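Z., the sequence and structure:
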Amino acid sequence: MKSEPWTGAEGEMPAFGPVMDRVNRETAGLGRRFRSNASHALGRWAHTYSALDLGTNNCRLLIAKPTRRGFRVVDAFSRIVRLGEGLGLSGELSASAMDRAISALKVCSKKMQRRSVSRAHNVATAACRQAVNGAAFAARVLAETGIQLNIISPAEEARLAVAGCLPLLDYNSRHALVFDVGGGSTELIWLDLANRRNPNILAWTSMSHGVVSLSEKHGGLEISPRSYAAMVAEVHEHLEGFERQHGLRRHFDAGAVQMLGMSGTVTTLAGVHMGLPRYDRSRVDGVWVPVPEIRAVARELSGMDYNARVSVPCIGEERADLVVAGCAILEAITDVWPANALRVADRGLREGILTMLMRQDDQRGDPS
């Protein structure tokens, strides 16, 4: 599935302005072009949509049909591929990691064809950004699967993540801190919620501390208390720099901030906290969790050995070697910015992509 590249500025930016306006401008050329004036006039209703997110650890796909209030997912796929395995040491994607990712992408391609997807956007994030052979890998993906990967900047990743979780923002709060713990990086986005329809991104940061990169540096199987403390301290140092620059803590002290976390780490810890026998997105997405309680879960997991973590429902073998690094990132974030509660989002990049594609098609179909 071809997908046109993102447009707009790349790289570090101190502020974004309104989320929706910015993403709409930067995604103005996305997806397949309309084939006729009739389909143009139908806006979103003419299409089946897909959004693919190839990250450092996971390959995820959503295929959706438009509805009046958003979209309905008709097919989905998720597989842990560990594309960034060994990247921190070698600086490049390994042959075995690329093979795993392409195997998953072939499944995605077949699903997109079977569902007759007519509007698609496929993004790759930290692993492909950082790897010296990231562009070569994207070319191989196109040749072998027909999927055109767009390697997006941290700025674009942050904007899309926020766009995907807008329905979970609490507009009774004046500000929100949204964070997305990935495999190769963690994004934090500071939002002004005064505009309910289109909140402003006031500041953001993307740090190269993700669950894969931290685990490869400090260990993922058997982790000593000293190693865990080193992970927390490393993340803490970066966050303190962001705090000094933007002064978030005074808003937290005033109780005027919502904290919202998205990622496998946050959803997994929420599932463990809830005592779920197996992970259930319908129960986790949108749930509020007391921060002291989710921190207690993180501390408990950090003290377990690998086999004990494998036996915990919602973790299992696929996440047992990475979850402790995620716990360290969560602990550092809630150390620097103590909040009473955390809202958990099992949504993000893909939902943001689908929302933007449909909005663009509606604008094209508006006769005014």
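The two ends are 31 Å apart (CA to CA). The chain has a mean pLDDT of 88.

Let me know what you think.
H.
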